[in-house]
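can u do me a favor
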């Protein structure tokens, strides 16, 4: 029995270079995801988990749209989607449905949005930006027990895509940081080896992560893809980390941008602050932002004190590309 199988059995996240490039290119529309226009195949908050699983747009990968690793009720309405993300806060059901509908529209327009990596529960969701633009790969969190793409993967990727960047969301096997990082490394290798087909620039890419996903991003930044079984590829030009207790670092770490809420009861903000200061002390560009009155798992932070934090992260990425 393979180690992956054992793990699975034992278990029973104004300075943009391309911000003006979306016109005329294959970029997903920058529309409010909470108010999707009426279209054939669109879902609503009254739709159910089963409707997502059975949707023809997601054939072959529908089980990865929502975090279902802890079990689910197919009859549960999407209005209750926050129940699937117990480690997260500020989950807005209407916005989640809007993100799903944007993905449905992308498939209807003839775009391939999911690439299977040939590993257990591992793949890449692709949100296209300007052809030839650099890429970001985003690691959702979930305590390595579920993958919260609907709250802190797809929203980030859609926002980056609307700015003109090519954005990927890694779907990884849950169970351990090691296995998750192996899947992330495999995903980065896939992007590099298929860059012509995907029409992405691999120079100066960035890795983003939230909570457990931030640990994944940091590990790739610290140790590189080869340390996790993939080809020896360039390290990212920037790592973006949201609300994590990860404190490891090396002298080879990429520039790092960190955000967290002051009321985070899972990821101690002081841990992130001290890590940032340690990187700065050895000459690595690093920034730390603390947002008031904010709990763990805020995603894009829409409607909170962190709203717009992604703009600062993109600015930091561009400065260090």
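np, heres the sequence
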């Amino acid at each position: 029995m393979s180690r992956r199988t054992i793990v699975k059995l034992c278990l029973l996240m104004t300075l943009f270079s391309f911000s003006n490039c979306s016109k005329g290119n294959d970029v997903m529309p920058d529309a409010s995801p909470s108010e999707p226009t009426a279209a054939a195949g669109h879902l609503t908050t009254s739709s159910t988990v089963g409707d997502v699983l059975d949707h023809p747009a997601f054939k072959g990968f529908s089980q990865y749209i929502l975090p279902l690793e802890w079990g689910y009720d197919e009859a549960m309405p999407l209005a209750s989607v926050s129940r699937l993300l117990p480690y997260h806060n500020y989950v807005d059901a209407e916005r989640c449905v809007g993100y799903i509908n944007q993905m449905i529209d992308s498939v209807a327009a003839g775009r391939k949005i999911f690439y299977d990596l040939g590993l257990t529960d591992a793949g890449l969701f692709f949100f296209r930006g300007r052809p030839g633009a650099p890429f970001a790969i985003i690691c959702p969190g979930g305590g390595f027990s579920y993958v919260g793409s609907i709250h802190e993967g797809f929203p980030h990727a859609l926002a980056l895509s609307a700015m003109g960047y090519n954005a990927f969301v890694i779907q990884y096997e849950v169970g351990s940081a090691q296995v998750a990082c192996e899947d992330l490394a495999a995903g980065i290798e896939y992007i590099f080896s298929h860059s012509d087909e995907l029409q992405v620039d691999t120079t100066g890419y960035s890795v983003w992560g939230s909570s457990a996903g931030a640990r994944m991003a940091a590990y790739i930044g610290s140790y590189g893809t080869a340390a996790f079984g993939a080809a020896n590829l360039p390290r990212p030009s920037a790592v973006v980390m949201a609300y994590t207790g990860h404190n490891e670092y090396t002298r080879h770490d990429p520039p790092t941008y960190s955000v967290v809420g002051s009321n985070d009861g899972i990821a101690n903000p002081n841990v992130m602050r001290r890590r940032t200061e340690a990187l700065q002390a050895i000459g690595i560009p690093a920034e730390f932002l603390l947002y008031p009155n904010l709990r763990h798992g805020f995603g894009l932070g829409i409607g909170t004190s962190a709203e717009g934090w992604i703009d600062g992260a993109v600015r930091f990425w561009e400065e260090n590309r």
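The beta strands are 114-116, 123-127, 134-139, 166-171, 201-210, 238-242, 256-261, 286-291. hope that helps!!
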